[in-house]
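Each field is set out as follows.
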Amino acid sequence: MAVITVAKSAGFCFGVDRAVKMTYEALDKYPAVATLGPIIHNNNVVDDMLRRGARIIDNVSELRDGECAVIRSHGVSRSVYDELEAMGNPYIDATCPFVAKIHKIVAKHTAEGDYVLIAGDANHPEVAAIVGHCKGNCTVFEDDESLLNFFRTKYEKLGKRLAIVAQTTYNILVWEKCINALPKDDPNIMVYDTICHATQVRQSDADELSKRSDLMIIAGGKHSSNTVKLFDVCRKNCRSYHIETSDELYTLDLRNARSIGITAGASTPAHIIEEVKTTMTEIMNEDNMNFEELLDQSFKKIHTGEKVKGTVVAVNSNEAVVEVGTKHTGYVKLEELTNDPSLTPADVVKVGDEIDLIVIKINDQEGIAMLSKKKVDEQKGFEEIIKAKEEETVLEGIVQSVVKGGVIVTYAGVRVFIPASQSGLPRNAELDVLLKTKAKFVILEVNEGRRRAVGSIKAVLKAERDAAKAKFWEEAEVGSSYKGEVKSLTNYGAFVDLGGIDGMVHISELSWKRLKHPSEVVNVGDFIEVYIKEMDKETGRISLGYKKTEDNPWDKFSAEYSVGDVISVKIVSVTPFGAFAQIIDGVDGLIHISQLANKRVDNVKDIVSVGDTVDVKIIDVDLENKRISISIRALLEDNAAEAAEAEEAADAE
């Protein structure tokens, strides 16, 4: 039996899907709608629009009075917008945003006098539209050979800067060759990688799948540029066929194909991909299924509200397509896949996944079943919520939104309300700081009838703090060192979080210097190394030390200075009874007013000022009380005595 695999990124791209939806919305809103060319290169979709009343026109002049025009995802030239404005008809611009970005790039560069090179098919409507925004100041090239020819024959004569863009559906492999063919380190060449990411992924996935397949089926319009490029990518690796509908499969040679890959262009709806896969499966398994089995499957029914198992067969930007074992094609919209708006269908499921689903709507006439994975997840999740309430389990979820009075956290698909009072934040704090963050919480209340739950982040934080405190008091000892965060400052010290419990470093313990405020040494938010000096478990008070014994300036002083030493000091403060002078960093000495001069001093400021450097003599040291007396007078007296002795010695000679 052959293994059939659908490429991860097959089918509708963002721009095409957007254009199709906008066209159908226009058909619902306006009495008459005309599209400027086929809205996409897919006959099934276009035929359905024609049945709904749409017309296809080639130019603006064909519009009827009051008819709404729809610009397709390929975009149009600047001149077409001008014609629409002149006609006065309403119009809807369904240009793919990625194409519109190219229009802005080329319009800007040509306005600045630059020349534009466009990688793509000159006959493709997207490329024609890009050219229409260049005001003729451009060249379209097909491949690396064409690009090289331009540089050989025209670049030097041009004398302009170059801006290079690519058609959004351009072959990524050819684009890489073009980039490699460009002159290196030329500041006048600006390259914009404008190939649509979805196109790149689609081509890359197709390339990878075709390398491990015996045969590839590429579904999409015969005139679809990106589908043709997918075909070109695949046929280099294995036998490949480009088809528009599943009926064409019966005409193909499928012999000797043990592994078959399926991909599709950006204009191919998911139901076409599903039809191709289903038909291919039926063809390959004809000999393995008897008539009774096929008949049983055709009559199998599913009902709204029923729980079913489905196998994911395709994933696009808006939904997942699943097989549910009936003739219905199952669709699971993004909003029915997950509660998380930041996720895409591909983030939730992948092709081949078997998932539980609930049927939310059936259309037997069209063979469509709308399904929900989210409802199954919510059922399972709510069972977990009830169990967590009974067992007081701590859960973890993402804060999805801020609502009146609190926040909503999702867990296993269930929305849990956390009141502001249980958020763990201070009163009147902005709840927005919690948005999109992970939060641990416990369940406080459960209303099974209304499927609602109330939780608390605060209770978890308190439990964690209590556990941290208990562990701290169990292990802490005087002298133990910790690395903690400075949480607050006061005039008398700094409070440090040791991990669930706070201790205080008194200002005198922050530095060997005299400080006016703790902020001279630490700031809130700093992480510092502290040690326990004293602790009282009954009162919960912890006194911490910060300054290091090895940095004690008094030890340095006692090792280097003695009574009688003459030193230079700097005056750091002046008082009515004397002046304090810095001997070394962290050690000051007092020059008493009586020691300032060898005469009576009435005002200290008459002799010294803050900032002065003076020579003094150490006359007393009290290390126990950390007091040092120094004297200018003693030094003056010593100098006078030496001078007298010298004079006496001179007289004696």
Notes: The chain is about 30% helix and 30% strand. Residues 377-462 form a domain with the OB fold (Dihydrolipoamide Acetyltransferase, E2P) fold (CATH 2.40.50.140). The chain has a mean pLDDT of 87.
